[in-house]
Write a sequence for this structure.
């Protein structure tokens, strides 16, 4: 009987220490989430202003200026950028991205995939590890982006993508990532990064003030300068979004794990007490019957 | 006029200035009060802000500036007080 007692006691202590870990991880994630959310908020004014400048420019140029980054070519070669986190223990966060990429490879880009023209650029250790096992050609130069995420690093990756698109190495670049809605909700998103689709339509209403602007040096140069920068900002936003979503996902997952551990502990405590009572009862019976046997003799 | 310097990592400067000297792609230029609306591309370089004779400097990477209604918004990919 005491064998069972000991077993349950060991389980209780192991579940308790697991619960402490998940609780600590939850608190850490909450703090990191706050930081990640801050980063998004800090970038927002820049992104908003950039968009409004683009709107003004688009208004002034009215599609007269040719934008090479918006050139739609027959889709022969495709690059999928798969953004995940470096670490696990965040629920379905990483698995969802990886699943979505594989789905795209089987459906929308099946032809390219069979020809070997579907390449993958993993960002984050988890997606790098996952796709190393497959036979997609990989670009691993930017997999470690999240250790010390910065705009400069993000720009390097965005520059690489822009050059590869301009050279014709890829005809389309798609990004798969988790976008951050709130701490509990991540939205798996697939967005086309290049070529830029509908360059000004969805950005209208930002601030199309009817002002006569002086453009310095000239509109063509401005568009050529502005569009790559918008793309840099866009790419950075994907990373920040994914980063915030990761911490949100981990926080939720660890919260659930803590709750589950609590429930498990409750059950274990009940069975521990049962076993303890049973042991006491047996002992009492033994003592009483022992005493009875003695007094009879 | 109101001046702000914005980067993807946040706002670096916001405040009043009488004069802003900017590194345009075709050379340095200055913006004074009540300048006409303008959008200009900036090269990497140094921004000078002057407010009643006191000057301050920022080292910036390439970007843009929008001047509209006495508001100067400087958008650069990186900026640091220098």
């Amino acid at each position: 009987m005491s064998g069972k007692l000991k077993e349950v006691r060991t389980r209780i202590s192991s579940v308790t220490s697991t619960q402490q870990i998940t609780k600590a991880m939850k608190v850490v994630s909450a703090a990191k989430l706050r930081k990640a959310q801050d980063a998004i908020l800090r970038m927002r004014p820049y992104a908003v202003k950039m968009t409004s400048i683009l709107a003004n420019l688009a208004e002034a140029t009215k599609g007269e200026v040719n934008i090479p980054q918006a050139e739609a070519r027959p889709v022969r070669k495709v690059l999928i950028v798969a953004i995940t986190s470096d670490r696990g223990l965040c629920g379905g966060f990483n698995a969802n991205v990886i699943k979505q990429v594989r789905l795209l490879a089987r459906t929308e880009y099946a032809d390219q995939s069979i020809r070997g023209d579907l390449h993958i650029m993993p960002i984050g250790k988890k997606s790098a590890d996952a796709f190393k096992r497959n036979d997609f050609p990989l670009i691993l130069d930017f997999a470690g982006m999240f250790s010390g995420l910065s705009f400069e690093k993000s720009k390097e990756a965005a520059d690489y993508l822009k050059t590869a698109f301009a050279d014709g190495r890829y005809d389309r670049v798609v990004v798969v990532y988790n976008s951050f809605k709130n701490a509990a909700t991540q939205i798996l998103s697939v967005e086309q990064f290049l070529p830029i689709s509908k360059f000004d339509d969805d950005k209208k209403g930002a601030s199309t003030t009817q002002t006569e602007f002086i453009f310095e040096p000239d509109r063509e140069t401005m568009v050529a300068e502005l569009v790559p920068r918008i793309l840099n900002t866009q790419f950075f936003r994907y990373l920040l979004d994914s980063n915030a979503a990761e911490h949100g996902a981990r926080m939720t997952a660890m919260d659930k794990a803590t709750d589950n551990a609590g429930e498990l502990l409750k059950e274990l405590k009940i069975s521990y007490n049962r076993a303890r009572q049973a042991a006491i009862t047996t002992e009492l019976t033994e003592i009483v019957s022992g005493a009875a046997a003695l007094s009879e003799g | 006029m109101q001046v702000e310097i914005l980067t993807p990592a946040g706002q670096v400067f916001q405040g009043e200035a009488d004069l802003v000297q900017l590194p345009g792609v075709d050379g340095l230029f200055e913006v004074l009060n009540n300048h006409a609306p303008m959008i200009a591309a900036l090269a990497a370089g140094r921004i000078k802000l002057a407010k009643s004779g006191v000057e301050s400097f920022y080292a910036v990477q390439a970007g843009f500036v929008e001047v509209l209604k006495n508001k100067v918004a400087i958008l650069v990919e990186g900026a640091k007080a220098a």
